[in-house]
Amino acid sequence: MEFALWGAMALVISAALSSAASLGNVSRFDELFQMNWAADHMDYDGGLVKLKLDSSSGAGFASKRKYIYGKATVEIKLVGGDSAGTVTAFYMSSDGDKHNEFDFEFLGNTTGEPYLVQTNIYVEGVGNREQRMDLWFDPTTDFHYYSILWNPRQVVFLIDETPIRVFENKEKKGIAFPGYQAMGVYNSLWNADDWATQGVG
Hints:
The chain is mostly beta strands. It is built from one helix and 14 strands; from the N terminus they run βαβββββββββββββ. The protein has a seven-stranded antiparallel beta sheet, with no helix packed on it. It has a seven-stranded antiparallel beta sheet with strand order 2-5-14-7-8-9-10.
């Protein structure tokens, strides 16, 4: 079975770094991103990006630059029908064992069941901050905006500009916060049939 993810990958970055200040509001996919695995499973027509998952591979791409603070937004239409065992991921991550990471993971569903969205935050290599929720709409019928806002005060996950999760900076209370590591922006479609169907596993 072959799955396809269609997404208009116009990335919106409002970065605090001067090196990223020249990006403006919206840039073309090929100006900001490059394939980081399975280039033969991606189709880009100058506007839409299509990632394909089949029995041999999924696909993924990464930003050419890394950013410290900002907002990344991607517009995605998820796989329709039976997508059990698939994960569509939109995330930001730094490098190394002590990396920081912010995840949007869309867990595949069986036909007729709702999609789950899972968010997670890694700080200095430690995750285990997963939160799951049912989407209040069908993400397979139209494109929706998914955003990660990161600044010194908070990390906010948004869907269509509605906040669904806020992780506040509480370092003064001894709670680690992901700061000061430049992060890339990533998107992928992959097989996780051992745990990804409605988050079972």
